[in-house]
Each structure stands twice: as structure tokens, then as C-alpha cells.
Write a structure and sequence with these properties.
about 325 residues; alpha/beta; Rossmann fold; about 40% helix; UDP-galactose 4-epimerase, domain 1; single chain; globular
């Protein structure tokens, strides 16, 4: 399969790019390279791999790069609330208008499979006693999630017998990546415990679902391999019911792995999102079974921090 990964140099994208390449795909990555190309240097120059620098807001560049591909995986976005809030106009141009340009160019190029990376944060605040399913009402609370919801609507509406789009609502990511991030909860807490011997937790009662980036890559592969009738026009939550974790519980997990770390709890907090998510549809329809637990992900990051794998984890290159 000839697969184009739009946004394939980022935190999740670099892992997906390598994963699909190792599974025999001809992989093209189209990326603005805001954080450089270091995350893909192990692949550059390899057979069946091509890196193209470009912006998804550039319709002509998209037309050229998409031609000839069987599948498009759209990951490119201004990711997360802080990054979107800093420049709302660019966030909308990229996450919504850019996504629609990729969609339209893919349809014109007769691409078969189209996988869109969305987010479980689209559920916003939900009843902690209930698990949000793919049919639950969406309650986007930020520019980031609002652009994702609007893009989802257009992508799902494009499904027909010749075009097979699928939306993946991804849990909060964790895990080690060639383009590492320390502004995500698991790595953020683990770094604070290691470096400062203290984790400050705002709103310990808030719930988040988590999924490892390598499990995300496996989910994309399952969608690409699935029969069209199984995934055409469908939404799948990607994660594990066992990995719905409150922030306070996550802090205690980190404390158990990092000897001597203290926890400081700050009541309330400025982030109102709290949601627990059901992942049974992906398990039943795709056979998706995450291999990574949150605890194992903490151990993975902590082991490398102890080895000084990232000499300066406070460097801005590790933060969106």
C-alpha cells in the first residue's frame, strides 16, 4: 500500500511513519517540519520512504503529493489548547480549513482510504459515572476541539462507495517518540518527579483516557487493513477502558515508580475537561487491544530520563 502521512514528523506521526514503513507500506510524509526533521532521520534515504516539506494550507502542493497514493492518514494540526489559543487564526486555517483541503485533494486523487486523527477531548465534560461512546453528544470546549469536531463532520459526510474515510478519536497520548513531548500529562508528571522530586497536580479529580503512541499506530494499521464496510464513515474511540485515569491517580502511579517524589494537590484548576471514554467498539469491530499500560509508559520515560537520554528535557523543542 502506498500511504501518505500528512503530519508524519510529529510526536505521533513519526512513530506511525516508522511503523507503517516497517510493515511494508511505501510511506510518504508531508510535513511543515516546524520542529525539524530529526524525528525522521532514521528513515530518510531508505527505500520506500519519501519526505516532502509542505503546508496543508497549500492546495497545489497537496495535489502534487497525494497523487498516486492508496491511503491518506491526516495527523497534521496545531495540537492542544495552549498552542491553538496562542494563534487561533492559524489553528483554524490548519486544523479545519487545511484538513478540508486534504480531504478534497484526496477525493480528487481517487484515494481509497482516509484516516483522520481526531481527539477524545471532543467530549469535553461528561458524567463521570458514564463512559462516552462514539454516539455520545460532543461538547468541544476549546478552539482545538471545535476545529476537530467541524473537520470530523465534513470528513464523515464524504463517505461513499468510492471513498472510505474513518475518524479516530484518540485518547491523551503517552510514550517515547523520536519527536518527544514533555507537555503531555504522563511525560510531564514523570519528568517533574525525576527532576524536581515533586509533581504539582491541578484538579486531581479530573478524568482522562490514555493511549500509547505505538498502540495508536497499531490502530491505524487495523483500520487500513479492515474491510471497507467495517470502517467506511465510522468513528472509533482509541484507547482502553482500563486507562481511564484521574489525574490524582496518575500522580500516584508516577510516585510509585520514582522513589522520593512528592505530590502537591492544587484544588480546582483551570482545565475544566473531564471525561471517561468507552473503547469497546474498536475492540469489537477492529480487534484493537492496546499493549501498553499507563504504568509501563511511565517506566519507559523514567528509564530514559535516568540515562540522560534527553540532555535538556526543558528545551522548547519538546513542547508544543
Amino acid at each position: 500500500m502506498k500511504t501518505l502521512i500528512v503530519g508524519g514528523a510529529g510526536y505521533v506521526g513519526s512513530v506511525l511513519s516508522e511503523s507503517l514503513w516497517r510493515q511494508g507500506h511505501d510511506v510518504t510524509v508531508f510535513d511543515l517540519l516546524m520542529f525539524g526533521d530529526r524525528s525522521l532521520r532514521a528513515l530518510v534515504g531508505q527505500p520506500r520512504f519519501r519526505l516532502v516539506r509542505g503546508d496543508i494550507r497549500d492546495g497545489r502542493a497537496l495535489e502534487e503529493v497525494i497523487a498516486g497514493h492508496d491511503a491518506v492518514c491526516l495527523l497534521a494540526a496545531i495540537v492542544g489548547e495552549p498552542a491553538c489559543n496562542r494563534d487561533e487564526r492559524t489553528a483554524v486555517e490548519t486544523n479545519l480549513e487545511g484538513a478540508l483541503k486534504v480531504l478534497e485533494a484526496s477525493q480528487r486523487a481517487a484515494v481509497d482510504r482516509f484516516v483522520f486523527s481526531s481527539t477524545c477531548s471532543n467530549y469535553g465534560i461528561s458524567d463521570a459515572n458514564l463512559l462516552a461512546t462514539e454516539e455520545s453528544p460532543l461538547n468541544p470546549l476549546s478552539v482545538y476541539s471545535r476545529t476537530k469536531v467541524e473537520a470530523e463532520k465534513a470528513i464523515l459526510a464524504a463517505a461513499d462507495e468510492r471513498f472510505c474515510p474513518t475518524v479516530l478519536r484518540l485518547s491523551t497520548a503517552f510514550g517515547v517518540s523520536p519527536r518527544m513531548r514533555f507537555d503531555l500529562l504522563v511525560s510531564d508528571f514523570t519528568l517533574a518527579a525525576h527532576r524536581d522530586r515533586k509533581v504539582v497536580i491541578y484538579g486531581e479529580q479530573f478524568w482522562r483516557p490514555f493511549v500509547h503512541i505505538r498502540d495508536m499506530a497499531d490502530a491505524v494499521q487495523l483500520v487500513l487493513d479492515a474491510p471497507g464496510e467495517t470502517v467506511r464513515g465510522e468513528v472509533f474511540n482509541i484507547g482502553s477502558n482500563d486507562a481511564n485515569v484521574q489525574k490524582g491517580e496518575l500522580g500516584r502511579m508516577v510516585q510509585n515508580e520514582v522513589a522520593g517524589a512528592e505530590l502537591e494537590f492544587i484544588p480546582g484548576g483551570t482545565d475544566p475537561r473531564s471525561y471517561r471514554v468507552d473503547f469497546s467498539k474498536a475492540a469489537a469491530r477492529l480487534g484493537f487491544r492496546p499493549q501498553w499500560t499507563v504504568r509501563r509508559g511511565i517506566q519507559e520515560v523514567y528509564e530514559l530520563l535516568q540515562k540522560n537520554h534527553w540532555p535538556d528535557p526543558g528545551d522548547k523543542c519538546y513542547y508544543n
